[in-house]
Design brief:
There is one protein chain. The chain is mostly beta strands and 214 residues long. Helices cover 6% and strands 56% of the residues. It has 1 helix and 16 strands. The strands form 2 sheets. Strands 1, 2, 3, 4, 5, 6, 7, 8, 9, 12, 13, 14, 15 and 16 form a 14-stranded mixed sheet that branches. Strands 10-11 form a two-stranded antiparallel sheet. A hairpin with an 8-residue loop joins strand 5 and strand 6. 24% of the residues are buried.
Length: 214
C-alpha cells in the first residue's frame, strides 16, 4: 500500500514539471552590441596610435537548469544569455556578457577589459563582483538583496549622454576601478566607458593613457 502511494506521488511530481523562460528586461538588452564576427571598431590613444578591435566571439543561447525533490525534477528554467568578445591588433581583450535575472537577481552585465572585470546588477544598481589579478571580491545575495559583507570600492554610474570625438552616445556605463589601488600598475585599467548598442567607447589606464573611439 505504502509503495503504491509513493509510486503515485512520484508520478504526480513527474507530471507537474514547471518550465520557465527567463528573458532580458527590454531596457537592458541593447547593452549587447549589434556587431557580428569579424566586425571591428577603432580606438585611438592620446599618443595618436590606433588600436583596431575585432569581434572574435558572439555567443547567444538559453542556459538550462533544473531542480526538484528526492531526485525528481519539478522545475526547469531557460535563462537568456549573450556573450561578445573583441580582440585588438595589440592583443587587448574586451568582452561583455548579459545574463537575464532570475529572482531575486536582476539582469547582470559582466564587462572585462584586459584583466580587470566586474559584474553589475541593473535591478539593484550595484557591482556584485570584481575580478582582478590582485584579488577577487563578491557580494552575497539573500532574499532581501545583496549583503554588505564585502566592501567593493569600485563604482559604476550610468551617464545619460557622453561625447567622444564629437560623437554623442546615449546611456553610457562608466566604471571606475578603486579596489587594490596599492597594487595597481602603470598599465592597469582604471576607467571603462561602455555605451549602449556600441560597446567600448573609452578607457583610461593607471598611467593616464587614454583610449577613445574614433
Amino acid at each position: 500500500m505504502n509503495r503504491g502511494i509513493a509510486f503515485l506521488l512520484l508520478l504526480s511530481l513527474i507530471g507537474c514539471v514547471k518550465e520557465e523562460t527567463i528573458n532580458f528586461d527590454s531596457e537592458n538588452k541593447d547593452w549587447i552590441t549589434s556587431y557580428e564576427i569579424g566586425d571591428n571598431f577603432i580606438m585611438k590613444d592620446n599618443n595618436g596610435i590606433s588600436h583596431s578591435f575585432s569581434m572574435t566571439d558572439n555567443s547567444y543561447y538559453f542556459s538550462e537548469s533544473e531542480g526538484g525533490y528526492f531526485f525528481v525534477t519539478t522545475h526547469k528554467s531557460n535563462t537568456e544569455y549573450h556573450y561578445q568578445n573583441f580582440t585588438s591588433n595589440y592583443g587587448t581583450q574586451f568582452s561583455l556578457s548579459l545574463t537575464a535575472g532570475f529572482e531575486p537577481f536582476g539582469d547582470d552585465i559582466y564587462i572585462k577589459l584586459d584583466n580587470i572585470g566586474f559584474a553589475y546588477d541593473f535591478k539593484y544598481q550595484t557591482i556584485s563582483r570584481i575580478d582582478s589579478p590582485f584579488g577577487y571580491l563578491s557580494k552575497t545575495m539573500t532574499d532581501k538583496g545583496y549583503e554588505n559583507n564585502v566592501t567593493i570600492n569600485s563604482t559604476v554610474e550610468i551617464i545619460d549622454s557622453y561625447i567622444v570625438n564629437e560623437s554623442q552616445y546615449l546611456e553610457v556605463l562608466h566604471f571606475t576601478f578603486k579596489d587594490y589601488v596599492e597594487k595597481c600598475e602603470a598599465y592597469t585599467v582604471k576607467e571603462i566607458f561602455v555605451a549602449k548598442k556600441y560597446g567600448l567607447i573609452k578607457y583610461i589606464l593607471n598611467n593616464d593613457l587614454i583610449f577613445e573611439r574614433k
